[in-house]
Amino acid sequence: MRSSDWPEDVPRTWETFLDTPASRTLQDSGVVVVPVPYDSTTSFQPGARHGPRATITASKQLEEWDIELERDVSTVGIYTTQEIEPHSGGPEAMIERVRRVASHFIAQDKLVALLGGEHTITVGGVTAALERHPDLTVLYLDAHADLRNEYMGSRWSHACVARRLHERAPIVQVGIRSMSETEGRFISTKGVPVFTWPPSVGIDELAADVIERLGTKVYVSVDLDVLDPSIMSAVGTPEPGGMTWSEATKLLHLVSESRRIVGFDVVELSPNEGPVACAFTAAKLLYKLIGYATSKL
Known about the structure:
alpha/beta; 8-stranded parallel beta sheet; 8 helices; globular
């Protein structure tokens, strides 16, 4: 008699993105979702460490069929890894840990999606992507410039992420509506392409402007506070006047049509700071990015 660890006729669920069965293997998956529950440099409202789990839980309610793309995005194969354990040695050590994990899967030709956690983890993801794609450009969606050289005594604070990325690769920022005077001077001196929000032109014209400044290969980083607090209040540093859902997804879709998205992350969900709808929004945005990034496969 053949035995199994579960009765075949009884449904079950898994703690994976989109409730992908545990039988899903890395080998038959094109996309790897890596949860990173880390928020040690948070300076206002902590809680982003709970973001990955809340997003994964909410993702179980997503429909696999994407109306906009007219396809079942999940057929690309989505594999969810175990969480990366936070490193108590500090953010720089954590960044290296994220880099090692991302590099491990990129070397296997997987599209890596980091799920944060605070924005600092992006440095690890981008560094790993640069090992495979040295001509990479970073598209950085955020309410804050994050271009400080140091914040609260650390060069690796969440407020310094864009500055550290700028030292590694060209970066284009969209959605910015908060910065310090020092950051403003840095932007002017270095010529960093920054699209503040709200824009003075329509989303199609703005997207064309953004795309013109991107290389052929793009890493997309989305801090959820780029969205307006009316739809995304569950973040550590909310900022009024942000993107709508349709503006954010239209921009990302247009980018994916003319550029190759080779890696991405969705970060800074602090689920305790807002309604459960925010976790669902984060999950759907991650799924949208998977769809956009794999549309040409």
